[in-house]
Amino acid sequence: MQNSSDRHEYPAHWEADVVLRDGGTARIRPITADDADRLVSFYEQVSDESKYYRFFAPYPRLSAKDVHRFTHHDFVDRVGLAATVGGEFIATVRYDRIDADGLPASAPANEAEVAFLVQDAHQGRGVASALLEHIGAVARERGIRRFAAEVLPANTKMIKVFTDAGYTQKRSFEDGVVRLEFDLEPTDRSLAVQRAREQRAEARSVRRLLAPGAVAVVGVGRAPGGVGRSVLDHIRDAGFTGDLYAVNSAFPEDQKDIDGCPARRSVRDIEGPVDLAVVAVPAAYVPDVVTECGEHGVQGLVVLSAGYAESGPEGRERQRELVRHARTYGMRIIGPNAFGVINTAPDVRLNASLAPEMPRPGRIGLFAQSGAVGIALLSRLHRRGGGVTGVTGVSTFVSSGNRADVSGNDVLQYWYDDPDTDVVLMYLESIGNPRKFTRLARRTAAAKPLVVVQGARHSGAAPQGHAVRATRLSHATVSELLRQAGVIRVDTITELVDAGLLLARQPLPAGPRVAILGNSESLGLLTYDACLSEGLMPLPPLDLTTGASPEDFHRALAQALAGDTCDAVVVTAIPTVGEASARDAALAEALRSAAAEVPGKPVLVVHVELGGLAEALSAATSTAPQAGSPASGTTGGAHPFRPAERPPTAVAKQPPAGPPQPSSSPAPDSCSRLIPAYPAAERAVRALGEAVKYAQWRREAAEPGKVPESIDADIDEKRAADLIGGLLARGQGLTLGTEETRELLGTYGIPVRGALAAPSPDDAVAAARTIGYPVALKATAPHLRHRADLGGVRLDLADEEQLRRAYAELTGLFGNPDQVRPVVQGMAPRGVDTVVRAVIDPAAGAVLSFGLAGPASQLLGDIAHRLIPVTDRDAAALIRSIRTAPILFGWRGSAPVDSGALEELLLRVSRLVDDHPEVIAVSLEPVVVAQQGLSVLGASVRLAPPPVRDDLGPRTLPVY
């Protein structure tokens, strides 16, 4: 199949798996000469009407000449792609390069005619839209910039495919045919369309796994116990609303059920459709199960089986084959080595996991790559005694194991517009595609909070079984980039739950001002100190004294909430001695009623628990399921996997409110608000601090920055592209010389101050005369570059005598001129030395960095980063986010520098790298920023051919 058809090698990098509109998958690949029989079979299954629309005439069958023409391509001027499921064609697309007269042509002609044919049974699945994205990317790679298509007016579906794609188009009508012409250069609208389709398709593919109508558990033992039998029991006991089947090839032929559940020897023997198969058989038997499921039309798999990439190289190859095998049938996989999935929605009630009990229904979406961590998180979100109680439970839970296919990115796509999920909590051990994750996180965080804790962040390697792109960025840098995307980054699963509690049931704070009140002066002071440590602005604590009654708490809380001096309230409480149960219930009711009177600000409780305080507070929530009730999912005793560490609890109910909003007035919904309670002031305040920062990000994200049009005037994008093309013609990758660097940066309005080589004292004097005194003499040998601290730079040389003396000192200190490589450069105005860099990271994408030159960045690592492209707001925040930023703004009476010029430089570097992906690294060092203007004294640029596919390319699933 993968042979060259004519004169070019088979382009294997064009192969891709894609998710279609209905959530199924298909494989897109080039058509080759070996596909003749597949093409004929495909064409026979196309209706006469579709054939007529394709050829504008009755065309019942393909001739031998047609088959040859449609299967033989040169992969440059003639290209054909097919979408396949189960190895068979379901759709095709081809382009033929044409000249201005519409005749066959070769390069440099940059237009092509494109045509599609989709099997009728697969129309409406978004196959043509996916093929258009991929054939468009192929055409751009081959130098084609415009497509033309002729379509019959009655073929409205195909016209819609073209018109909805978002490209710049021209449309005409002549001789009964609609002619469409459109540029292939991606536009903002085409990218928006592509990403919206990606989100809908991937969300639908996850929805099919989480809300199936029928489930088959494959590998159910005949005796109680074992993984398969346990999962079957968990699904049945949770009250799954769909059909459930037990499958085991070892069942006797006459066995019809097991514990009341229909039993079958094979998935093929199930009479009706099956949406989800939970696979719990040894790895060696999984391929046969996948084949059975694929042939029966199963939509997705949850593979609990181990023995894959986590076990070594052989297992890794077994895992790759598992993914390839499942995708052949259009199925998606959670796992292998997965813990399972849970959906608490009342119309689903699915517990297809190893968790023995269904967690309480709630509004938190939970994702964990690790099964062990998944157990810990479910435990914390299930507990009553001091734990998360009431309706603050789980909407859906996914534990992906080795995440060979479905990953955190896919689940984010689902949760983005899931009406049952208000907050997303994720435990990640690795991020397979940080660039895409950052993009999805930014969009999700604009709608609902996303809290992430990343494990294995200090090990330097991804866990076994995880396919991860290599990155040159530190974990701290990746975390900073995620925070800029709105992700709430925490360090432990305890902090994950703490933040989730607050965000799930409280409005976002409008600012950092915190009121503190309670019946313990010491606890109030601890809370005050914790607020200062988190960068909050606490008001002096209000001590109600240990004799405070519930009415006192009610009055103080209502007054604090009603005032305009605070944005959040932390209530500190110690239990009373005596009739604790009654007083605790009264206190809970007092807090609830006060919060209900003045909604709109978050309220947290810090309590020292000496007995039943948390239970009493929880009991104040009338909607909270009680132990032993059907809604609670327990029978009242201790939870079977309860850790010793006590997580926070949710307490008194507040009035209904909607999705978290960055304001003090949340919109109402049908869900009760709970006041979260924490056993330590530091934990409560840390969660509040994260909420404050997230609310600030939401407010800023609502009014995104822009790239000022003023910088366009002296940017010559075409000249830069011509320079880059000419330079890359020399080889695959290169670092530009000094003059080439100056010329390229000059096309983007970035002047680099020139320097003249000085291989001898006389050459130095001649250079100084050319430049004009005063000058600087610099050593440019790699070990001396940018090392003024070693004495490799001599400044303010006013005349020939000073220059010759400096030259002698330099060569006397560091060696002969060949070792020192001295240059002469004109003096720049005095200012602050800074460094600006941009790199293309394989995982994170294009990153812009800024810091002060010298020890601040090199020794202390005081460097800030932003994802490219940056806006004016990003540039301003970038230079202000380093710890040494005060030096730029008049620290200790010094003159502030020209921050506007520095921000403009950052925008220009960002624009250069964003416009030309061939520019993989830019370094400007030093950039001397003066009171007026700046000077770039040193620069380097590295080029390389752009990647064939990136995040701006067509939709694809990860390659295995």
Helical content, roughly? 25-40%
**Physical arrangement of strands within the biggest beta sheet:** 1-2-3-4-5-6-8-7
Radius of gyration: 33 Å
Q: How many E-type strands?
A: 40
Sheet with most strands: 8 strands, mixed
Query: Oligomerization state of this entry?
Result: single chain
| Alpha plus pi helix count | 27
Write the layout of secondary structure elements.
Elements: E1 16-19, E2 25-30, H1 36-44, H2 48-55, H3 64-71, E3 78-85, E4 88-98, E5 111-118, H4 127-141, E6 146-151, H5 156-163, E7 169-174, E8 177-183, H6 188-210, E9 214-218, H7 227-237, E10 243-247, E11 257-258, E12 261-264, E13 276-279, H8 286-296, E14 300-303, H9 313-328, E15 332-334, E16 340-343, E17 350-353, E18 361-368, H10 371-382, E19 394-399, H11 408-416, E20 423-428, H12 434-445, E21 450-454, H13 475-484, E22 488-490, H14 493-505, E23 513-518, H15 521-533, E24 537-538, E25 542-543, H16 550-562, E26 568-573, H17 580-597, E27 603-607, H18 613-619, E28 649-654, E29 673-678, H19 681-701, H20 717-728, E30 734-735, H21 738-746, E31 755-757, H22 761-771, E32 775-779, E33 793-797, H23 800-814, H24 817-820, E34 822-826, E35 832-841, E36 845-852, H25 855-858, E37 863-867, H26 872-880, H27 899-915, E38 919-929, E39 934-936, E40 939-943
Parallel strand pairs: 5-6, 9-10, 9-13, 10-12, 13-14, 14-15, 18-19, 18-20, 20-21, 21-22, 23-24, 23-25, 23-26, 26-27, 27-29
Antiparallel strand pairs: 1-2, 2-3, 3-4, 4-5, 6-8, 7-8, 11-12, 16-17, 16-19, 28-29, 30-40, 31-34, 32-33, 32-34, 35-36, 35-38, 36-37, 38-39, 38-40
Quick tags:
960 residues, 7-stranded mixed beta sheet, disordered N terminus
